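job 3f2a | input accepted
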Amino acid sequence: MADRDAISISSGSDDEEQLDRRAILEPAIQNVVDALGGFEGGVYRMGDECYSCLKDLKKFWRKDDTDDERTVARIFSDCRVLSNDLIPILMETAGKGHVEDKRAIASADLITAMTWPIDLAEELKEMDEELDKGSDYTQLLSSHLRYKAAMLQSGVLKALFSIILPCLAKPPKERKERDIQIITVVLFLVRNLAFIKDLPSNTNLSSDQAEFSSLQSRLIKVLSEDFILEFLLTIASNASTDPLFNRWNVIALEIFYLIFRGVRPASLVIEAEKVDPRTLHIQ
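job 3f2a | predicted structure (283 res):
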């Protein structure tokens, strides 16, 4: 896998260079994805080198740091690696007897990277004179909606939350920096999901697209059912007195902001039984 990490892009026009980049990267990435594992008889079976493959995919992902076209992100989207592999691996490994299952943590880390917010205005600003290349971020934004929908499947966020429970259960003196990093990654993933905006409600949407117009409401519901909201409230209420929770205060604040963005402030102090639940997913 390491040999594939050294990718050389040939010189030429921008279009030719981009084509060459995808032509080189796609087969290598697909080979790694295939080696992760697959379903057999309805059960996901992980490959022998699953953990190494997850690390290789993260190395590939970093190649987009210098690629305005986000070639690797587009390949990952086409491969359906998040829904077909990363979520099944997370479900199969998180909280299954290992205090720190490396495969579950590596999957969560990669999902966090793949769902990182896309600031479209900033992306276009950075490209500046390269806009004539016709870069299209529609696919990337659409893939984020699919990722969010996949993460809201039954049990996925619960499995994600189980990754951080062993870290929180440790006495403060026994907690290591890695425990802090694991919790931070999971919180950033929740932040990323909350950031992804629903499609506007429209009667002309297809059944598949209609699902994408109510994801935020579903996210809030799942966060509540899996006690993640309670954890966020614990962080917020102890941020000023507990150094452990203080380091995550800003992330928790951002998550709450994203959950309630677009909701009128006055409606947040109305008695619970008088609140129209439809207002909770306005963005």
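job 3f2a | The chain has one domain: 2-203.
job 3f2a | closed
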